[in-house]
């Protein structure tokens, strides 16, 4: 008697273990898989099917250990419940037992979770907006600064102030520029040096020009720098300038709801439509009511993308699908705002013993980076070169010109010191003083601002007397 009871207990325990953790031999010899054609999840290649979902199915089958046969859903629908409570599409096939698994971009929702078992999400998505680039953004007040980054503008400002300071110092030190500090006024004050440098930056010029070799070296270096700088600025400004065909700014759902110039809609009968329909957010409710009133729904993803490309239409859909459209069509852009985050999952019949193992396999693929690899493989963009054109110029892109300017400023300052030293040596020989003493006196005389003010006052007095 005891022996029989133990056998029953063992058999029951073994049956429970098979239900929770079925080995490969407990799974059907060939599972029936239903899917739907949608790029890049499932696509036809000759007589075979390929895409993200097909690669995912292959990897999951290896880990769990089952064979499968894939067929396309008969009615071409994901799965929606009608008024009588019956489900169509892939969800309906799983519910009716016509398929064991449904693998596609199936959104994990509460309604679907009630009638089928769904795995852990293999991809996260949300709801966003797809528009044509010329209506997605408006012109800002400071768009003229976009050709350069903030770091580049700071570098240009430092170069401007440094050049003006070098011109000011060189024209005061050089005897060829200012030969008689006691009787002559220096034409290159610091304010005039700033004005002269700004004039050269705008290619307008602001005389008088330096006469000494040291000042001319500095000016030539600055002129060369400004020519390259302006060429880079205007080139990048023209490439990043957006079309002026529309001045409407659409950055998110609130902007979309507050305007009436652009029509918008989503996929009919989709989970995106259900999100707006069931939302209590007043902005989302207004969007839903507008779509219902205007009947601006599309019957397929391709139709939504086509209407967005034609302009004056914003297509609302899953952010992952919209990212694919942006990667394939360079004239489109996705809004930054993403709401209603949810996931794509594999569906199986309620109580299916394989659903647990499928979730574990998906988590293992995610942790190993396989899902990220499949995403990059099937979402590869063909618009990389176009994106690179509108990038702001980084400081390291102009480091060569900054280096040339620095060498020119340093060389000009050195020549100015050499010019003053040469004059000091001649004066020391005439006055029979040491060169260092005469050079020190010259530096003190030329760099004192009070002396310049005194010379200005003397010149004004001479003019009054005359």
From TrEMBL:
SMART domains: Lig_chan-Glu_bd, PBPe
Keyword DNA-binding attributed: no
Residues in Ionotropic glutamate receptor L-glutamate and glycine-binding domain copies: 40-96
One Pfam assignment: Lig_chan
Alphabetized UniProt keyword annotations: Cell membrane, Disulfide bond, Glycoprotein, Ion channel, Ion transport, Ligand-gated ion channel, Membrane, Postsynaptic cell membrane, Receptor, Signal, Synapse, Transmembrane, Transmembrane helix, Transport
Site (Crucial to convey clamshell closure to channel opening): 250
Bilayer topology annotation: Multi-pass membrane protein
Record: residues binding L-glutamate: 105, 107, 112, 271-272, 318
Disulphide bond pairs: 330-383
Compartments where located: Postsynaptic cell membrane
Residue ranges crossing the lipid bilayer per the database entry: 153-175, 187-207, 213-234, 398-418
GO cellular component terms, A-Z: postsynaptic membrane
Positions of the Ionotropic glutamate receptor C-terminal domain: 30-381
Positions bearing the site annotation: Interaction with the cone snail toxin Con-ikot-ikot: 277
Primary location: membrane
MF terms (GO), sorted A to Z: ligand-gated monoatomic ion channel activity; signaling receptor activity
Family listed: Belongs to the glutamate-gated ion channel (TC 1.A.10.1) family.
Described function: Receptor for glutamate that functions as a ligand-gated ion channel in the central nervous system and plays an important role in excitatory synaptic transmission. L-glutamate acts as an excitatory neurotransmitter at many synapses in the central nervous system.
Name the record gives this protein: Glutamate receptor
Originating organism: Mola mola (Ocean sunfish)
